[in-house]
């Protein structure tokens, strides 16, 4: 492991921390105190890392924990597409690092899987202030995978990246993320959607999707133009904006 600071493109303002409760929480605090778009909070560990849907995110040293402050200037619904932007950027970063990149796939809404195992988590949150701000939080299991998880998990070390260098990984990922963010801002969701679909897992297949108050089983028919999952049910098609997807054992 190196202690050098990552060198990021000028878009980013890096805040490098040793330990923090949650980089998302710290980015939200800094946004409230006036930090602007491009502020990137990176920590070596989190003591209260947050996952999607109120879950905790196991955050020991050795993995990547970062949150990027953005001001996308769009509706909250469209801002949800930033999770797809990050997933596509992360998959592209891994293409250059892992053996057999054809193993790298994407699971709705924004999980990156390698050999069917989740290697990262992406959490989008709105800032309390200023209005319209978005915190894009990304955790990547470089060295350590969580013991307990809803899904099968893996670390990049287990998948063939024997000695990951955190600053170098962040440099690569940040560059890819900026490039995809610029594309999304300039041309909208279509190219991101196409890149996501090219790696999608479960499209056209039966899936189980757990929502807040119900669990549905249906066919993953499409990813719509906004990023919602179109689920075909016996009673008709339903568009799902948020949920946990599982694949029935085949
Ligand atoms: C998921 O549940 O899949 C999303 C997990 C997101 C974890 C990252 S780690 C960096 C950032 N800070 C947090 O507290 N959470 C996100």
List keywords for this structure.
five-stranded mixed sheet; 250 residues; binds biotin; globular; alpha+beta; five-stranded antiparallel sheet
Main pleated sheet: 5 strands, mixed
Which regions have little confidence, pLDDT < 50, spanning 5+ residues? none
How many beta-strand runs? 13
**Total helical elements:** 5
User: How confident is the prediction overall: mean pLDDT?
Assistant: 96
SSE-based structural type = alpha+beta
Q: What is the distance, rounded to the nearest whole angstrom, between the alpha carbons of the first and last residues?
A: 40 Å
Shape: globular
Brief overview:
The protein has helices at residues 23-32, 76-79, 82-95, 166-187, 190-197, and strands at residues 13-20, 39-46, 64-70, 104-107, 111-114, 117-118, 120-126, 134-140, 206-210, 215-223, 229-233, 236-240, 244-246. It is an alpha+beta fold. The chain has a five-stranded mixed beta sheet, with helices on both faces.
Explain this structure.
This protein has 250 residues and is an alpha+beta fold. It is built from 5 helices and 13 strands. A hairpin with a 5-residue loop joins strand 10 and strand 11. It is globular and about 55 Å long. The chain starts with 12 loop residues before the first strand and ends with a strand. The mean pLDDT is 96. Bound molecules: biotin (BTN). Residues 22-24, 46, 49-52, 55, 57, 65-67, 121-123, 137-139 line the site of biotin.
Task: Walk me through the topology.
Blueprint: E1 13-20, H1 23-32, E2 39-46, E3 64-70, H2 76-79, H3 82-95, E4 104-107, E5 111-114, E6 117-118, E7 120-126, E8 134-140, H4 166-187, H5 190-197, E9 206-210, E10 215-223, E11 229-233, E12 236-240, E13 244-246
Parallel strand pairs: 1-2
Antiparallel strand pairs: 2-3, 3-8, 4-5, 5-6, 7-8, 9-10, 9-13, 10-11, 11-12
Bound molecules: biotin (BTN).
């Amino acid at each position: 492991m190196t202690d050098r600071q990552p060198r990021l493109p000028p878009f980013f303002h890096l805040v490098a921390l040793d330990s923090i409760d949650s980089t998302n929480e710290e980015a939200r605090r800094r946004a409230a105190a006036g930090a602007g778009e491009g502020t990137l909070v990176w920590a070596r560990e989190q003591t209260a890392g947050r996952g999607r849907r109120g879950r905790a995110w196991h955050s020991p040293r050795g993995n990547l924990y970062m949150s990027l402050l953005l001001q996308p200037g769009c509706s909250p619904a469209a801002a949800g597409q930033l999770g797809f932007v990050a997933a596509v950027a992360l998959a592209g970063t891994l293409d250059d690092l892992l053996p057999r990149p054809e193993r790298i796939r994407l699971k709705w809404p924004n999980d990156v899987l390698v050999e069917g195992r989740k290697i990262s988590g992406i959490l989008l949150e709105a800032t309390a202030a200023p209005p319209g701000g978005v915190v894009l939080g990304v955790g990547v299991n470089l060295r350590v995978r969580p013991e307990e998880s809803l899904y099968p998990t893996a670390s990049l070390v287990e998948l063939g990246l024997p000695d990951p260098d955190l600053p170098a990984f962040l440099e690569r990922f940040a560059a890819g993320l900026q490039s995809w963010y610029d594309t999304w801002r300039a041309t909208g969701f279509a190219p991101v959607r196409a890149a996501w679909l090219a790696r999608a897992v479960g499209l056209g297949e039966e899936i189980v999707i757990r929502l807040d108050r119900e669990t549905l089983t249906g066919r993953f028919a499409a990813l719509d133009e906004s990023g919602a999952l179109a689920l075909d049910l016996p009673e008709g098609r339903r568009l799902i904006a948020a949920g946990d997807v599982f694949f029935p054992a085949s």
